[in-house]
């Protein structure tokens, strides 16, 4: 066989194979805005899953306020992203981080030379220069590596619910108000700690023949599509967790109501994270299918 000896074993120091960069804006305890690059991010339905160091200022802010904006830079913002590398909004820089070159930076927007724009459903600002900005609220925090004594507690997978999406007109599809043109959208990619741009489309995809659908109450306005899912209530403009009916004393927002479709059983409360779980612990629903199809993801 041609590929029989094509692999050799290795132990990579990191497994950063290539994911989009997100500039996460959150609110610091003193009311100023923090802005931090991260890239361990992926999307499931209307949710984002963000892998963050538990000690970062962003993780602390997200836990405390339950709010963030996920700004997606294009390759044109690579310099701005790099200006934020090795900075933290946490005034207490640990010795380990200081050795790695990190420094405290209270003015992240100024340092990056990016422009804050007010958000509408959350307090942290959007980044004007980023072609995509998603206002989001915290839905859950999942421990990562809880089975490993040395790593336990150091990384958290934050699950955030996207409340409002803003895009630059240049990346909108010409024919559909609820579609982004993937040939126009040029995300900035972090791969093995280096910053990359996407090349051209490799080929037409048969996956794209499946129509994607939106289940949110999408408004007809092109400038302010409302992604609020039916049955959920957006927090007020400056709503913090404690002021918006979050679970008292926990600092966590109230879980949005779970809507059940015909194929979803009452006990199927883990569906939002099911695709992340190994098959052996996925439960079968009433239709005998594993989990349930995500609301608007065609894959
Ligand atoms: C391109 C890039 C990608 C990064 N990706 C992540 C990531 O996915 N998760 C993470 O915890 N930190 C990531 N970092 C490091 C954070 O930016 C760093 O921890 C920073 O101190 C966070 O800022 P904060 O302490 O003000 O929140 C990344 C940094 C850069 C420059």
From TrEMBL:
Residue stretches making up the Flavin reductase like domain: 14-180
Annotated region (Disordered), positions in chain: 206-299
Cofactor list: FMN
GO molecular function terms listed in the Swiss-Prot or TrEMBL record: FMN binding; oxidoreductase activity, acting on the CH-NH group of donors, NAD or NADP as acceptor
Species of origin: Actinocatenispora thailandica
Pfam annotation, one family: Flavin_Reduct
InterPro entries the UniProt entry points to: Flavin_Rdtase-like_dom, Flavoredoxin, Split_barrel_FMN-bd
Protein name: Flavin reductase like domain-containing protein
UniProt key word Flavoprotein: yes
Keyword vocabulary terms for this entry: Flavoprotein
């Amino acid at each position: 066989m041609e590929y029989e000896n094509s692999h050799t074993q290795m132990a990579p120091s990191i497994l950063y194979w290539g994911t989009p960069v997100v500039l996460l804006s959150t609110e610091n305890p003193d009311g100023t805005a923090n802005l931090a690059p991260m890239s361990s991010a992926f999307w499931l339905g209307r949710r984002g899953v963000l892998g963050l160091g538990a000690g970062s200022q962003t993780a602390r802010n997200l836990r405390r306020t339950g709010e963030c904006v996920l700004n997606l830079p294009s390759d044109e913002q690579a310099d701005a992203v790099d200006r934020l590398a090795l900075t933290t909004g946490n005034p207490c820089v640990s010795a380990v981080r200081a050795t790695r070159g990190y420094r405290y930076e209270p003015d992240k927007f100024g340092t990056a030379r990016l422009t804050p724009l007010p958000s509408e459903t959350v307090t942290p600002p959007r980044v004007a220069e980023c072609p995509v900005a998603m206002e989001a609220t915290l839905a859950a925090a999942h421990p990562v590596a809880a089975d490993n004594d040395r790593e336990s507690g150091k990384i958290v997978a934050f699950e955030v619910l996207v409340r409002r999406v803003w895009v630059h007109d240049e990346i909108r599809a010409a024919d559909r108000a609820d579609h982004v043109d993937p040939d126009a959208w040029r995300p900035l990619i972090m791969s093995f700690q280096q910053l990359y741009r996407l090349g051209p489309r490799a080929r037409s995809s048969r996956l794209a023949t499946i129509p994607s659908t939106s289940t949110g109450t999408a408004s007809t306005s092109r400038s302010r599509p409302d992604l609020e899912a039916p049955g959920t209530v957006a927090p007020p403009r400056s709503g913090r967790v404690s002021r918006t009916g979050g679970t008292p004393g926990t600092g966590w927002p109230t879980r949005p109501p779970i809507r059940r479709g015909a194929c979803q059983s009452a006990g199927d409360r883990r569906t939002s994270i099911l695709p992340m779980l190994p098959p052996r612990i996925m439960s079968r629903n009433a239709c005998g299918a594993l989990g349930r199809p995500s609301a608007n993801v065609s894959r």
